[in-house]
Design a protein that fits this description.
The complex is a heterodimer. Chain A contains 15 helices and 19 strands. Chain A is of the alpha/beta class. Chain A folds into 2 domains: about 30-155 and about 305-380, Response regulator (Rossmann fold, 3-Layer(aba) Sandwich), CATH 3.40.50.2300; about 160-295 and about 405-435, 3-Layer(aba) Sandwich (Rossmann fold), CATH 3.40.50.2300. A 5-stranded parallel sheet of chain A has the order 4-1-5-6-7, sandwiched between helices. Chain B is mainly α. The chains are: A alpha/beta, B mainly alpha. At the A-B interface, strand 9, helix 9 and helix 10 of A face helix 1, strand 2 and helix 10 of B.
Chain lengths: ~450, ~290
C-alpha cells in the first residue's frame, strides 16, 4: 500500500508539472546547426555569435511558432573546411541526417560552402551563409530558384562589392597621400595571394588603377602560405611604389604585414587582409602590422546604427574580443530567422523563404535587404551601398583597430556625405612621411 | 637587383640549410628518414610561443627550454615509435609521418588553428645599397654557418662523432668493435631533433606559428637533401643555397609567378636527379665516409 502511494505521489507531481508548463510540454526545440571551422577564428566567430543569439532568445522563453513557444537548440558542427572539403560535407551530412536540424548558419571557404549548399538544398533546409563571399553562391539562386531558394547570404557583401569597396579605399588613401605628401602620381604595387578569389581583382586592378590616375608598377603573386616575402618586398621597394594594394585571406597576410613593417617599406598598405581584421593580428605581427588598412565589418567604437553598440559590447564582454564578420551568425538567427519564423508561424522552409526574401531589416552591420539580379530574379544576396551594408575601412593605429572609412564619403554626385559614428582620420605611417615629405 | 637576389637567396638558403642539416645527419648516420623532423621544429616554435607569451619568460630562455624539451620528446618518440621498427625503412617513413600528424593535431587541440608569432631576437634592419635586411635574417645566416661548423666539428673532432661515423659506415662492424650502435643512433637522433628545435628557435621569429607550419619546410627540406645527396651535410648545405637562390630569381624575374618559387625549386631538384641520380654530393659523401 505504501509503495502504491509513493508511485501515485510521483505521478501526481509529474502531472502537475506538465499542467503548469503547457507550452513546453510536447514542444520540441528549434534546432539550428552552426557549421564552421571550429578550431579557427572564423569557426569560433560562427559559434560565439550563434551562442549569443540562442541565449538571448531562450532567455525570453523562446520563439512563438504559431501557438507554441519553442526554445532554440544549437548543434555545433566542425567543418574543418580549411583543410578538407570532405570533412565539411561530412559535418553537413551529420547535421542534416543525424541531428535533423531545422536551419543551418555558417560556412566560410567557398569550395566547401558550394558543396554544403547543395546538400542543404537537397534536404530543403534554409542555409544562411556567414563567411563565403563568392558571387556564384548566390547566382545559383537566380539560375535555379526552385533548388537553391533555401540559401541566403547574411555576410559578407559579395566579392564584386568587396572589390568595389576596396578600390574606393585605395582611391581615398591615394588622395590623402597626394594631398599631404605632394606626390603628383601615385605608383601602386598590386600584391595578391595566389588563389581563385584574387584572379578577378588582379585583372580589375590592372584595368582600373590607370583610370583612377594611378600607375601600376607591378603585380606580385606570392603563395597564400608563403613564410617569407622579403624578396617581394625588396622588389616592391625597388619599383618605387607609394602604395601596396594587397589581397590576402591566408597566413601570408601576417607574413607580409610583419616583414613590410619590420623593413619599414615606404608604401601604404590598403586592400583586404583577412588576418588584419582580427584582434590577434597585432600580436601575430609583433606590432609590425601598424598602419595597415583593410576592409572589415566591425571595429570597436564604430556604430552603423542603434544595434551595433549593444551587439559589440555584449560580444566583447562575453568573449573578450572584437567580433569578426563570421559572428554575424548572431544577426542571422536574431534578425533574419527569428522574426521570420514568428511571422510565418511555422518552421516550414518554403513559407519562411517567401517571407525572408522580401524583408528589409536592421542588423548590427547596417541594414539588410536581399537583392535581385538585372533580370529581377532573386539572388538572396546582401545589398551594398549607402543606407544598407557598406562595410568599413579599418586601420591598425598603435595597437588598436580603428574605423577610418567611410569618412565624409560621397557615394555618387549629389548623394549625402556618410561618416559613421566613431570613425577617425586615416594615418600615414611616419616612415612613409619621412621618405616622401618634401 | 643583383644585390637583392643575392641577399634574398642567402636568407632563404640559410633557413633551408638550418632545417636540412639535422635531417641529413640522422639519415647519414642512422639511415632513418625522419619525416617528423620539421614537426619537431613546429613543436619547438609552439614551446617558444608558450614560454614568451603565456609564461612571460625571456625569448632566449624560452628557446633554451624549448630545445631541451623538444630533444627529450624526440628521444622518447625514437624509443617508442622508431627504434622498434628501425630495420624496416618503409615502416619508419609511415611511423614518422604519422608522428608528425599526431603532433600537428595535438598542437591544433591545444593552441587551435590561430596564427601566432614570437618576437625577433634582434629588432630592426640593415640597409646595404638600398637593400633592407632584417637583423633576424642576418642572424639566421650566421647561425646556419655556425651550426654547420659545429656539426662538422662534432663529427670529425669528437669520440661521439667517430662513433656516429663508424656506425654510419658499417653498423655490424661497429657493433663488433664494442660500440653500442643502438645508443649511438639514439644520441644521433637526439642531436638531430635538437638541431630541428634550434632551427625552430632561430627561424620562428621569421615565421607564422601554426599547426601546419611543418609541411612546406618538410617538402623544401626533402628537396634540399635529395638535391645535395641524401645524407651529405655538405650537399645539404649546397642544395639549400641553390634552392634559396632559385626562389629569389623567380620572385625578381617573374613577379606574377612568385607563387611558383617552390615549384621551380622542386623542378631543379628533379632535373639534377635526372642528370645525377645520387645528388650533387652523393659520391663525395660515400668517399668521405
Amino acid at each position: 500500500m505504501k509503495k502504491n502511494s509513493f508511485f501515485l505521489s510521483i505521478l501526481l507531481v509529474l502531472l502537475l508539472v506538465m499542467a503548469v508548463t503547457p507550452a513546453a510540454w510536447g514542444a520540441k526545440a528549434i534546432k539550428i546547426g552552426v557549421i564552421g571551422p571550429m578550431n579557427f577564428v572564423q569557426g569560433k566567430g560562427h559559434w560565439n555569435g550563434a551562442t549569443m543569439a540562442a541565449e538571448e532568445i531562450n532567455a525570453k522563453g523562446g520563439l512563438w511558432v504559431g501557438k507554441k513557444k519553442m526554445k532554440v537548440e544549437l548543434v555545433k558542427a566542425d567543418s574543418n573546411e580549411f583543410l578538407s572539403v570532405t570533412d565539411a560535407t561530412n559535418a553537413m551530412e551529420l547535421l542534416l541526417t543525424r541531428h535533423k536540424v531545422d536551419f543551418i548558419v555558417g560556412g566560410f571557404r567557398t569550395e566547401a560552402v558550394l558543396a554544403m549548399q547543395d546538400m542543404a538544398m537537397d534536404y530543403k533546409k534554409i542555409f544562411i551563409g556567414c563567411g563565403a563571399a563568392t558571387d556564384e553562391i548566390c547566382t545559383r539562386v537566380a539560375k535555379d530558384y526552385n533548388t537553391y531558394k533555401y540559401w541566403f547570404r547574411q555576410t559578407p557583401i559579395n566579392s564584386t562589392f568587396l572589390g568595389n569597396t576596396s578600390f574606393i579605399h585605395l582611391g581615398t588613401v591615394g588622395a590623402i597621400m597626394k594631398k599631404y605628401l605632394n606626390i603628383p602620381k601615385i605608383k601602386t604595387a598590386v600584391v595578391a595571394e595566389k588563389a581563385e578569389w584574387t584572379e578577378g581583382v588582379v585583372k580589375a586592378s590592372q584595368a582600373v588603377l590607370p583610370k583612377m590616375g594611378m600607375e601600376v608598377v607591378g603585380v606580385w603573386r606570392p603563395s597564400a602560405v608563403a613564410t617569407d616575402v622579403t624578396a617581394e618586398l625588396s622588389a616592391i621597394q625597388r619599383s618605387g611604389a607609394h602604395m601596396i594594394f594587397n589581397w590576402f585571406s591566408a597566413s601570408v597576410g601576417i607574413t607580409f604585414a610583419r616583414q613590410a613593417g619590420e623593413l619599414k617599406i615606404p608604401a601604404a598598405r590598403v586592400g583586404i587582409n583577412v588576418e588584419a581584421q582580427k584582434d590577434g593580428f597585432w600580436e601575430a605581427t609583433q606590432g609590425m602590422g601598424n598602419y595597415g588598412m583593410t576592409l572589415n565589418t566591425y571595429a570597436r567604437g564604430v556604430e552603423f546604427n542603434e544595434l551595433t553598440a549593444p551587439f559589440m559590447n555584449r560580444y566583447i564582454e562575453r568573449f573578450g574580443e572584437t567580433p569578426t564578420y563570421t559572428a554575424d551568425t548572431y544577426g542571422a538567427i536574431i534578425y533574419s530567422l527569428a522574426p521570420t519564423i514568428e511571422e510565418a508561424e511555422t518552421l516550414n522552409s518554403d513559407k519562411i523563404v517567401a517571407i525572408l526574401e522580401n524583408r528589409e531589416f536592421a542588423v548590427p552591420a547596417g541594414r539588410l535587404a536581399f537583392i535581385k539580379d538585372a533580370q529581377g530574379r532573386h539572388l538572396h544576396d546582401v545589398k551594398w551601398g549607402p543606407g544598407y551594408i557598406t562595410a568599413l575601412g579599418v586601420q591598425w593605429q598603435d595597437g588598436e583597430l580603428k574605423g577610418v572609412w567611410p569618412n565624409r564619403w560621397v557615394a555618387a554626385k549629389g548623394a549625402p556625405e556618410i561618416t559613421y559614428k566613431g570613425i577617425v582620420p586615416y594615418k600615414i605611417a611616419p616612415w612613409i612621411i619621412e621618405k616622401y615629405k618634401k | 637587383m643583383i644585390l637583392d637576389i643575392i641577399t634574398s637567396g642567402l636568407i632563404n638558403g640559410s633557413v633551408y640549410a638550418l632545417l636540412a642539416i639535422g635531417f641529413s645527419l640522422i639519415f647519414g648516420a642512422a639511415r632513418i628518414v625522419n619525416l617528423a623532423h620539421t614537426a619537431f621544429y613546429m613543436v619547438a616554435s609552439y614551446c617558444i610561443y608558450y614560454g614568451t607569451h603565456k609564461m612571460g619568460i625571456h625569448p632566449v630562455l624560452a628557446m633554451l627550454v624549448a630545445i631541451i624539451l623538444v630533444t627529450l620528446v624526440g628521444l622518447i618518440c625514437y624509443k617508442l615509435f622508431i627504434n622498434p621498427i628501425r630495420e624496416h625503412e618503409a615502416a619508419v617513413l609511415i611511423a614518422t609521418i604519422a608522428l608528425a600528424m599526431a603532433m600537428q593535431e595535438i598542437m591544433l587541440l591545444i593552441f587551435t588553428g590561430d596564427f601566432l608569432s614570437v618576437p625577433s631576437l634582434v629588432k630592426g634592419y640593415l640597409e646595404i645599397i638600398g637593400v633592407k635586411i632584417a637583423y633576424q635574417q642576418l642572424l639566421t645566416i650566421g647561425v646556419a654557418l655556425v651550426i654547420l661548423a659545429g656539426v662538422w666539428a662534432l663529427l670529425k673532432k669528437t669520440r661521439l662523432g667517430l662513433a656516429i661515423r663508424s656506425t654510419a659506415d658499417d653498423r655490424e662492424v661497429a657493433n663488433l668493435m664494442g660500440m653500442n650502435e643502438s645508443r649511438v643512433a639514439m644520441i644521433t637522433m637526439g642531436v638531430s631533433v635538437g638541431l630541428a628545435a634550434f632551427a625552430g628557435a632561430v627561424v620562428v621569429p621569421l615565421a607564422v606559428v601554426n599547426p601546419h607550419m611543418w609541411m612546406h619546410p618538410l617538402i623544401m627540406m626533402l628537396a634540399v637533401v635529395v638535391l645535395g645527396g641524401l645524407g651529405s651535410l655538405k650537399g645539404s648545405f649546397a642544395g639549400a643555397y641553390i634552392l634559396g637562390f632559385a626562389e629569389s630569381l623567380v620572385v625578381f624575374l617573374i613577379p606574377l609567378g612568385a607563387f611558383l618559387k617552390g615549384s621551380v625549386a622542386l623542378c631543379i631538384m628533379i632535373l639534377v636527379l635526372v642528370i645525377r641520380p645520387e645528388g650533387l654530393f652523393g659520391v663525395a659523401f660515400e668517399e668521405e665516409r
